[in-house]
Amino acid sequence: MKFLSFKIFVLAIGSIFIGLGALSAIKSHPKQIDPIPEAEVEQTIVEKGTTYKLHKGNLYRVIGNGKWELAQQIYDPDFYNKNYVERNGAIFRKNPDGEPLPVKRTFREDFEGAKALKDLIGLKRGWTTCELQSPKTPTVNDYVKLRNRILKGESDFIDNRVEPCSEMARGGKTALKTVSVPPSRGMVTAKASLSTELMHFVKGDDVWMSLWCYVPKESGIPLTVLDLETTWIHQHPGMRIVIEDGKYVSFQLKSIAHPYYRQPKGKETLFPTGQWVHLKSHLKLSEKDDGRIELWQDGKKIIDTNGQTLVFADTIYNSFEIGVSAYNGTDKPTTLYVDDVEISDQPLSN
After folding, report:
1. E strands within 22-174?
2. Cα–Cα distance measured from residue 165 to residue 114, given in angstroms and rounded to the nearest whole number
3. How many CB atoms sit inside 10 A of residue 221's CB?
4. Using CB atoms within 10 A of its CB, is residue 304 exposed (0-12), middle (13-18) or buried (19+)?
5. What's the pTM value of the predicted model, to 2 decimals?
6. Section 20-49 average pLDDT
7. Under 8 Å CB-to-CB from 88, ≥6 apart: which residues?
8. Are 341 and 210 in contact (CB under 8 A)?
9. Using an 8 Å Cβ cutoff, are 228 and 202 in contact?
10. What is the pLDDT of residue 349?
11. Left if phi > 0, otherwise alpha if psi is -120 to 50, otherwise beta: which for 189?
């Protein structure tokens, strides 16, 4: 296969992996339609007393006269054909600047040999982007521009940082250091994370994930440390590992309902600071309540339950994100070191 050059690949990331799939609210006058047969409805959602129906990527609000009113386009129903191609049973991401890129079902990283962010992002290591959302780069456009300048050697980080480091490696010589300042007023969250958007997990799949993380004692506690998401749906929903109230690890499905999968009440295991912590998880993907959620902390199973793990039936989880994927602290920055990361459709040995 002929791969993209590093320079072309990095520039493509800004327009392809971040831009596609993030669809905005309908700006024209709301369209009213007659109800669609329930057999064709993808999902029914009740939020604050209002019923919503999802059909072919469009979210409709059920209104008083029996009609459905178009509220928002959630995703492009033709996203798969526009962005994927199949060859001899294998799935590839389309690439306007070269040969399609094979999707991944297994990915691991120990960060050894990396000296700077540019050593991680690209086809050789497999990471495709990083997020540096902060008060000085509050929008996607802002931090994409900064990231591209950093990768070209034209700029250093401003406040948030994502970079290899040797100061806190777990076993080898290198780990990933992610640093985020608190979000400013009006920002939903701040971010300092690393992602690959070449993953491919769908309904019925098993997903095993593992990472080691270290939060210094004097640091703020990140809200989330790992995300498995889809970039093809508005606001990139998916499953994420959350440290609630800076104390206990749980899973959350970031979606309209935002269901949490928590440790048994009264039997929670505290997430410690000032030491390496191993988090390992297993998900069975389903848009219904028969999905599977298992989570271990330092070898101890702390969550073992069933529930919805997939946003919609046709969702493709293509993004695997690690680091400070969300930080809502108010008084001090957070630092999160990450090492020995792995994701697979097969059980992990560690």
Report:
1. 32-33, 43-47, 50-55, 58-62, 68-73, 84-87, 90-93, 101-102, 106-109, 129-131, 161-165
2. 8
3. 19
4. middle
5. 0.88
6. 70
7. none
8. yes
9. no
10. 85
11. beta
